[in-house]
Amino acid sequence: MFAAVIGAMMLMQNIDDTGIAVARPVGEAILEPTSGSVFQVFEFYGRPPHTWRHATRMVKGYRHEGREGRLAFVKTGATHFFLVLNFDMLREKKMWIGLSAECNDQADLKWLDETALGDGSFRAWSPVAQKAIREGCAKLEGSGTRLPILYDPTEFGVRWEVANVRANIKYMMVEFPVPPEETDEAEPASEN
Asked: Rounded to whole angstroms, how far apart are CA atoms 138 and 129?
């Protein structure tokens, strides 16, 4: 039965050069009260590659209570600390998140929804990550290649690190955000 479900999911996800592995949830899904998003760790199941590109495509097929999954957006300190405190695995295993450095004339840091990381945004960089991004994108200048960002646990804490496009990371932090139509309904109408 489990093999049939995996096979059906693979067909629904338009298998391409990103790989054929699927993922399964690890532990429980936990609601982050500030954003209303639900987060859960997923583990690749099957033969590599377990790349960031594969993860970004694959998690769209996963749902939690009707919400479509995506690699996690960690845009605030509150979200970062919630994840670190509530997911022990994040402090032990490398995990993909939904951020990348797009190598154009410079390294444009973007979330999967194409919003920029921005100057005033929260950051959790390792001490060497930004230098590695600059150096990696200098080699790929103008290519549009996206260098993936991941959570990397070290003796100094859980920090963001950059990886090459072929890196295989077995785990990912998946976010099930509040659907846009629900956030629109929650906003009060403006008065003219």
From this structure: 14
Q: What is the pLDDT of residues 154-176, one digit of tens each?
A: 888 999 999 999 999 999 999 99
Tens digit of pLDDT for each residue in 72-115? 999 999 999 999 999 999 999 999 999 999 998 888 999 999 98
Residue 140: how many other CB atoms lie within 10 Å = 18
d(CA 95, CA 153): 9
- Enter the DSSP assignment of 82: H
CA–CA gap between residue 130 and residue 107 (Å, rounded): 10
The Cα 64–Cα 100 span in angstroms is 24
The answer, yes or no, to whether the previous bond of 49 is cis (omega within 30 of 0) is: yes
- Where are the chain's structural domains? 2-178
Fold of 2-178: Mannose-Binding Protein A; Chain A (3.10.100)
CA–CA separation, 9 and 87 (whole Å): 26
pTM confidence score = 0.83
47, 151, 170, 175 from 50: Cα distances, Å: 8, 15, 6, 18
Cα 78 to Cα 99: distance, rounded to the nearest angstrom: 17
Residue 158 Ramachandran class (φ > 0 left, ψ -120 to 50 alpha, else beta): beta
